[in-house]
Amino acid sequence: MSAANMMMRGGIIMSRRSLVACSSAASRSLSTLPSRYDVATQLHAHQTTNYNHQRHHLFSTKTRRRRRGGASLSNDRDLSPQQFLSVANDLLDKVESSVLKLKNNNEGIEVTRHPASSGSTSDADGSDRQHLGQLEIKVPSIEGPYDGGTYMLTINADNNVALQCLSGNFTYVYNTVTSEWVGQEDGHSLLGILTRDWIRQCHGVPDF
């Protein structure tokens, strides 16, 4: 074999070896590339992360706890003593006027408005307390499951109103945001519970 043929054959062998080496390198490179599934999974995770990031700015996921106590539900402390006394007397005026309209339908009912006490007076439970005005409503005994009794609305000097009614004794504060009297313990409506107790014992619905 001539030297030229040997060189040509050697070149072919080297070319084949180079081709095999290149093919192996390419296979290794392809094996390191992510599959379609991996790409799709990473893209979904990226989109989900972006969505959650945007959602965090649109909607707050912070847990909100309900406040307890009437003082936290109201802004009665924003009122001056004169302003508080004014809205408290408006409440007594409204209840008194509504009950007097129904007096003819409820024989024996007595409605009495008491001015502010100059000294200490006795509450229904026997304790002494100075007040800034009272509305007393005596309901006679009538036929039915509920006996008669006395409703008492009392304006207290410490910026709250006490209610004695069929359901019990409660203390209320004035909510300046909603312009309502709400229970100091749970925020229920004074006029709501007064209306409910009234229709249990008396005739007609008061327009509080």
What's the structural blueprint in terms of helices and strands?
Blueprint (H helix, E strand, L loop, with lengths): L2 H30 L3 H23 L11 H4 L7 H21 L8 E5 L6 E2 L5 E2 L1 E9 L9 E8 L3 E6 L2 E8 L4 E4 L6 H12 L7
Antiparallel strand pairs: 1-4, 2-3, 4-5, 5-6, 6-7, 7-8
Element string (H = helix, E = strand) = HHHHEEEEEEEEH
Structural category is alpha+beta
Total strand count, please?
8
Q: Roughly how many Å apart are the termini? A: 124 Å
Helicity level: 40-55%
Query: DSSP helix count?
Result: 5
| Radius of gyration using CA atoms only | 42 Å
Rough shape? globular
Main β sheet profile: 6 strands, antiparallel
Overall mean confidence score, pLDDT: 74
Task: Give the uncertain stretches in residue-range form.
Answer: 3-8, 10-15, 48-74
| Beta-strand percentage range | 15-25%
Trace the largest sheet across and list its strands: 1-4-5-6-7-8
What does this structure look like?
By secondary structure, this protein is α+β, with helices and mostly antiparallel strands. The chain is 43% helix and 21% strand. The chain is built from five helices and eight strands. It has helices spanning 3-32, 36-58, 70-73, 81-101, 190-201; strands at 110-114, 121-122, 128-129, 131-139, 149-156, 160-165, 168-175, 180-183. The strands form two sheets. Strands 1-4-5-6-7-8 form a six-stranded antiparallel sheet. A two-stranded antiparallel ribbon has the order 2-3. The protein is globular and about 45 Å long. The N and C termini lie far apart (124 Å).
